[in-house]
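With this grant's support, we have settled on a layout for protein records. A representative record follows, to show the layout.
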Amino acid sequence: MLAVEFAGVFPYLVSPVDERGRVKTDVLTGLVEHLIVAGVHGLTPLGSTGEFAYLDASQRIEIVDCVVRAARGRVPVVAGVASTTTAGAVELARKFVEIGADGVLAILEAYFPISDAGVEAYFKAIAETVPCPVVLYTNPQFQRSDLSLPVIKRLSAVENIRYIKDASTNTGRLLSILNATEGRMKIFAASAHIPACVMLIGGVGWMAGPACIVPRESVALYDLTRSGKWEEAMRLQRKLWAVNEAFAKYSLAACIKGALELQGFAVGDPLPPQAPLTTEAREELRIMLGRVGSRE
């Protein structure tokens, strides 16, 4: 199972849940099909855009199971594993692999600050539980305890910890990670980074919510960077950056769910107590999507 390699565009999927807490599996299945037809290289349920912090264990399991079934092995599924306890993360990771996930995105939810030793032990325990590749997820904006460069370097020595998704806004940190891990760890960009620039310095793709609403354009950008067509890539990147700007302006799930609703996917509002987009924000998204999708 470890032989699988991850690269390319991996949209962070939203989690469609109705007002009674039921997962809207039909909507999620339709979204998965749409994204695969659009050419994405993988799928990541239960990332930040997937509102994992607002879902219970049964909902998370149902969402991953739905995505795995809908994908039918056509693209790898990397499921987000997040918990405040090591035992909880280990149990989720084990369950997701049993369901059929091809990899796990390891996230640390921390209420109290955790020492470097505790952070390292948490991620190492997840990796030792599963036979598949592990993607570390670092997001200093939201995480109480972040992955430091020394911890990342040590974790890169663990055989199946092969990737890191860095959601900081510091592109120099990405270079530091690449240098410190000496080829043992590959980097996925987040919406906080400019994907084309991350590809230029050695990234292998991006895992981010915006790819949910502009999948074809995201794949086209990836293909251009892989082909070394940097002038064309940057023209497309400049156009697509409006999506990242909207993502930064509005709350994550509200922005992507709102845009998907405009595109005909009944994913619903973000889970309470998060607020849905205002009418004005939805109109701004509608205009932005029209511009991004134009051929100008």
